[in-house]
Amino acid sequence: MMTLDKKYRDELIAALRMHEISGERVGEVLAEVEAHVTETGEDPVEAFGRPREYAAQVAEQLDRGTGKRSTMEVVASGAAVAALTMFGSDYLLDGLFADAATIPYTLKDTVALVTLLVLIVSGTMLFFAAFTAKARNQVYAVAAVVTFALCIVSQIVIGSVFDDVTPLYEMPRWAAIALGGVLVLGVIGMLARAIRRGRVVYPKAG
Fold this sequence. Notes:
Elements: H1 6-18, H2 23-40, H3 44-48, H4 51-61, H5 71-97, E1 102-106, H6 107-132, H7 137-161, E2 167-172, H8 173-198
Antiparallel strand pairs: 1-2
Helix pairs in contact: 1-4, 5-6, 5-8, 6-7
């Protein structure tokens, strides 16, 4: 009796998750593939295609009601996690290690952080597109690399252009710690929810 190759199984799981398919639906797809391979002895690549190709086919057949989030939901969720992580860690670390009772934030600090956030989110979306799009994958991959490189360049340019002396706003140390802690906890909550959603759940035997 032939069983599904572990390499194919792991690659299929990774490819399905790249398409933001729920763990429950991933389990159903794996069960279907494993059952076919066990019953027929056919090679999974010949029967279903390569993992990335088959994952794309599965994703095309899904709508919001069957386990796949919309592109806008994915982008919004990714942007929210990135924003909470960046601002939360920035405020929390500033509050924990500041020498003064009040922490100043200049125009340069604000512009640099927002620019970094936009570029990281954009680069991550391009990276995912490189693995999930049916065409122009290499173009997306190159664009992602360029975008991540711009993260470094942008910080150098911003540091030489914007005012880093005059405070744009100030925050008490305790407020920075409290706000940073709340934002970091928000990230942990979102990641925990994503992990629960991504757990592979096989269909119950009838």
